[in-house]
Automatic annotation (TrEMBL):
<dbReference type="Pfam" id="PF03648">
    <property type="entry name" value="Glyco_hydro_67N"/>
</dbReference>
<keyword id="KW-0858">Xylan degradation</keyword>
<dbReference type="InterPro" id="IPR029018">
    <property type="entry name" value="Hex-like_dom2"/>
</dbReference>
<dbReference type="InterPro" id="IPR011100">
    <property type="entry name" value="Glyco_hydro_67_cat"/>
</dbReference>
<comment type="subunit">
    <text>Homodimer.</text>
</comment>
<feature type="domain" description="Glycosyl hydrolase family 67 C-terminal">
    <location>
        <begin position="437"/>
        <end position="661"/>
    </location>
</feature>
<dbReference type="InterPro" id="IPR037054">
    <property type="entry name" value="A-glucoronidase_C_sf"/>
</dbReference>
<dbReference type="InterPro" id="IPR011099">
    <property type="entry name" value="Glyco_hydro_67_C"/>
</dbReference>
<comment type="similarity">
    <text>Belongs to the glycosyl hydrolase 67 family.</text>
</comment>
<keyword id="KW-0326">Glycosidase</keyword>
<feature type="domain" description="Alpha glucuronidase N-terminal">
    <location>
        <begin position="8"/>
        <end position="111"/>
    </location>
</feature>
<dbReference type="InterPro" id="IPR005154">
    <property type="entry name" value="Glyco_hydro_67_aGlcAse_N"/>
</dbReference>
<dbReference type="Pfam" id="PF07477">
    <property type="entry name" value="Glyco_hydro_67C"/>
</dbReference>
<keyword id="KW-0378">Hydrolase</keyword>
<feature type="domain" description="Glycosyl hydrolase family 67 catalytic">
    <location>
        <begin position="115"/>
        <end position="436"/>
    </location>
</feature>
<keyword id="KW-0732">Signal</keyword>
<keyword id="KW-0624">Polysaccharide degradation</keyword>
């Protein structure tokens, strides 16, 4: 088979070393699956099918799977698993213990992962439990199959063929999710179309849900707030109107008839033109509770994920302050099955931004994080940007809201404020390209997201190493080269596009290339809203003398970030308007440092190209060449970013480019 990347990290190619192969054969003569019931189920069938596929590929064996009943284990939670060695009729076997069929399935994938990575199965003693309950992908997929901010082809969901024709890809998609422990998917765009809630579409959604269910994947839908008017014939969508409540109650009941394990709704309201409760003088809590009520009443765990990506461009308040201002006063008003879904940053998935100060700021409200796997502002699956490093930075970030150690990871997993329900969302980078993600190495982002959703304390390098081992037949040296490349790649994009805390200076519309000069229509899209370049200097003043966005953070962070002397270079221009001749930590002036960062970004892309050239023969030619071509384009793009931004900012700085920076082409 051509190495087109279709198999993702689930390749299961034959273990070549004879010794390892026979070790593995010896160790898995049988596999024991222990759950509280010990009974068969569609999920257990899926587990068996995956073990059969995996072990046939890896060692040419069809394993015997013994189902046994055993006591519930408190340490494994709902979805966790344990792997241990046992003997069955004198033969060595591996036992997967779990409290649920889904947990057992995750254990089976973990076992296969170990074998793919050639890890020893001797003295197995592994317990793994996810820290977050709902581990979701969000698809920004429209019903016409256009994917908003999608760079890997059309939507995977063939709405026109559903429910009659089921692409085999749906199963492979579900396997991929389950293999990293993801357990839910929102299949429709946040810019929602109410049509998906009509009876016709619900039968299609049901068909997808039926395919996903055995793999432990629950389906969720985006709910357009004005749906009662658009498809229900009502004259209002006012959340406090009893007829509107009755409409949603009936709609939820209808959805449950089709999809008994329906996960719930994701809602974008009163943001970027989407309808919402504000139209009726109501607030976000009124809106969210409207949908949460029938879900809770049904007693099936349904949740509402209400997005905090809200801002009004008519509002002259600094855009990054608006979500906090809107949501903090509502703390305590949201129903228990509502989670406020917050993008990692207060602006919009920039290559780097300060974290959203809303995290931890509403202790009585369930909060979840939304990360963006698709590379909207990081090169659109043409450029290489491994995002594991970015998400590690986000999840490990200390908010200090309840003292030191109040990391975003702990806010999101619910442990900081003892919340009963926790969730995480990643905006998918998938499409119908053969390799799923466009750039072959962008698969690593899907993988890394899933692994971090399971355990936000995993390290980005460990995940990259794991993914590389699963994805390529590379020797140790080549693997290390790939991992190093991945690890540096996000910072490289930051350097050549938005270094030192610059943000939102991309071209409007496509968001792919530079556009610090962009003006148009709205205050926040009109230069210099974000970069504030002038003859004095550069950067957004968000301390007390400016918009004072800094006041939304804990005192510890105000101290670190609000003072020029303390703020790290990475966030300098996010919080401060800095004179061109300001002396940086490096001893250089701001202008020179800025110019050299852009140059460094270009140089790093060149270095990546050289590394990749060197790798030829170390991995299969097909994927090697696909990446080679993309890196070549990335160099051109990086040069464009550098030249465009430096020429633009030079109009204000009126200073020459320092030595070491190439003159613009
Ligand atoms: C960004 C993105 C939009 C998207 C929006 C959102 O602004 O460009 O395409 O709809 O985020 O997250 O709602």
């Amino acid at each position: 088979m051509a190495e087109d990347g279709y198999r993702l990290w689930l390749r299961y190619d034959r273990v070549e070393s004879r010794e390892t192969r026979s070790d593995y054969r010896g160790a898995v003569e049988a596999i024991v699956v222990q759950t509280p019931t010990g009974e068969a189920s569609p999920t257990i069938d899926a587990l068996k099918a995956e073990l059969a596929r995996g072990l046939d590929g890896l060692i040419g064996r069809d394993p015997t799977v013994h189902l046994v009943a055993g006591e519930t284990r408190d340490d494994l939670g709902a979805d966790g698993y344990a792997l241990t060695n046992v003997t069955v009729d004198g033969d060595d076997a591996v036992r997967i213990t779990a409290n649920s069929d889904a947990g057992a399935l995750y254990g089976a994938f973990a076992l296969l992962r170990k074998m793919q990575l050639r890890e020893s199965l001797d003295a197995l003693d592994e317990v793994s439990v996810p820290k977050i309950d709902r581990r979701l992908l969000n698809h920004w997929d429209n019903l016409n199959r256009f994917v908003e901010r999608g760079y890997a082809g059309f939507s995977l969901w063939e709405w026109n063929y559903l429910p009659d024709i089921l692409s085999p890809r749906y199963t492979d998609y579900a396997r991929a999710l389950a293999s990293v422990g993801l357990n839910g998917t929102v299949v429709t765009n946040v810019n929602a179309n109410a049509l998906v809630l009509t009876p016709e579409y619900l039968t299609k959604v049901k068909a997808l849900a039926d395919v996903f269910r055995p793999w432990g994947i629950r389906i969720y839908l985006t709910a357009r707030f004005s749906a009662p008017m658009e498809i229900g014939g009502l004259e209002t969508a006012d959340p406090l109107d009893p007829a509107v409540q009755a409409w949603w109650d009936a709609k939820v009941a209808e959805i449950y008839e089709h999809i008994p394990d329906f996960g719930g709704f994701l809602v974008k309201a009163n943001s970027e033109g989407q309808p919402g409760p504000w139209e009726y003088g109501r607030d976000h809590a009124d809106g969210a509770n409207l949908l949460a009520k029938p879900l809770a009443a049904a007693g099936r765990d349904g949740i509402v994920m209400w997005r905090a990506f809200v801002y009004a461009f008519e509002d002259t308040t600094d855009r990054v302050k608006q979500a906090y201002n809107q949501f903090v006063p509502l703390d305590g008003k949201f129903a228990d099955n509502v989670l406020v879904q917050i993008k990692n940053g207060p602006l919009d998935f920039m290559p780097r931004e300060a974290f959203s100060p809303l995290f931890g700021a509403t202790p009585q409200t369930n909060q979840m994080v939304e990360l963006q796997i698709t590379q909207e502002y990081l090169g659109a699956s043409i450029q290489l940007a491994y995002l594991g490093t970015m998400w590690e930075e986000v999840l490990d970030q200390d908010t200090y809201v309840a003292g030191e150690g109040s990391t975003i990871g702990k806010v999101v997993d619910g442990s900081l404020f003892n919340h009963p329900v926790s969730a995480i969302a990643g905006v998918a980078n998938t499409g119908d390209d053969r390799n799923w993600t466009g750039h072959p190495l962008a698969q690593a982002n899907w993988y890394a997201y899933g692994r971090l959703a399971w355990d936000h304390e995993l390290g980005a390098r460990d995940i990259a190493t794991e993914w590389t081992g699963l994805t390529f037949d590379a020797d140790e040296e080549a693997s290390t080269q790939i991992v190093d490349l991945l690890m540096g790649s996000r910072e490289t994009v930051v350097n050549y596009s938005m270094p030192l805390g610059l943000h939102h200076i991309m071209e409007r519309g496509h968001h792919y290339g530079p556009g610090p000069w962009v003006t148009g229509g709205r205050a926040d899209w009109t230069s210099p809203y974000y970069h504030q370049a002038d003859e004095v200097g550069l950067g957004a003043n968000r301390i007390a003398s400016g918009t004072n966005a800094i006041e939304q953070y804990a005192p510890e962070l105000q101290e670190q970030w609000g003072q020029l002397a303390n703020v790290p270079d990475e966030l300098l221009l996010w919080f401060h308007h800095v004179p061109w001749d300001y002396e940086m930590r490096s001893g250089r002036t701001l202008w020179n440092e800025l110019a050299l960062r852009y140059q460094q970004g270009v140089d790093e892309v060149r270095a990546m190209r050289a590394t990749w050239a060197d790798l030829r023969g170390g991995i299969d030619e097909e994927r090697w060449d696909a990446v080679r071509q993309r890196l070549a384009l990335q160099e051109k793009d990086a040069i464009e970013w550098r030249d465009a931004c430096l020429l633009y900012f030079q109009q204000f700085s009126q200073r020459p480019l320092p030595e070491g920076v190439e003159a613009p082409a």
